[in-house]
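quick q for whoever's on today - can somebody do inverse folding on this one?? i tried earlier but teh output was garbage lol. tokens:
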């Protein structure tokens, strides 16, 4: 299987609890390598643009407010089949349904404040990486 990249966000519930290191350690232990990382405070435009696919969902406005409620850490992760590997270590969207040992099962607060974002396809990974990073900010 090929080494590929995916996009990750450590969400505001994790920066607030000062567990960005713990989350990153779980990603690394799963076999993912952080090849780009920065801590930012999302603007409304960034949060709405990033989650634009969810614009019609009932939780959209709350989600945008949550993503702006504190700093986040945006990251590019590299590894074998990185999109699927990251989704596996993240666990299900709702932490109540997530497998033991996953980031969301162990650390998430709720279905909304669920600690991490991860791209859901290679195509979206490329779009999401380009949304936050210039090519020269990614060092593999
Ligand atoms: P994912 O993050 O596991 O890919 P998505 O369905 O893409 O899940 O939803 C994006 C984000 O929207 C979730 O990570 C979570 O923060 C939030 N979210 C999803 N479903 C709900 C919901 O039913 N209530 C509140 N927030 C939700
Ligand atoms: Mg998603």
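ok took a stab at it. sequence:
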């Amino acid at each position: 299987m090929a080494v590929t990249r995916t996009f990750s966000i450590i969400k505001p519930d994790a920066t607030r609890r000062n567990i960005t290191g713990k989350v990153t350690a779980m990603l690394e232990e799963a076999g993912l390598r952080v090849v780009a990382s920065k801590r930012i405070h999302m603007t409304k435009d960034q949060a709405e643009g990033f989650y634009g696919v969810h614009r019609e969902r009932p939780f959209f406005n709350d989600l945008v407010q949550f993503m702006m409620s504190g700093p986040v850490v945006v990251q590019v992760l590299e590894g074998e089949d990185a999109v699927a590997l990251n989704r596996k270590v993240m666990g299900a969207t709702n932490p109540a349904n997530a497998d033991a040992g996953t980031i969301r099962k162990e650390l998430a607060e709720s279905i909304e404040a669920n600690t991490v974002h991860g791209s859901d396809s290679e195509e979206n990974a490329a779009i999401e990486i380009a949304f936050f990073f210039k090519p020269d900010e990614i060092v593999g």
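fwiw The two ends are 18 Å apart (CA to CA). also The mean pLDDT is 98. so keep that in mind when u check it
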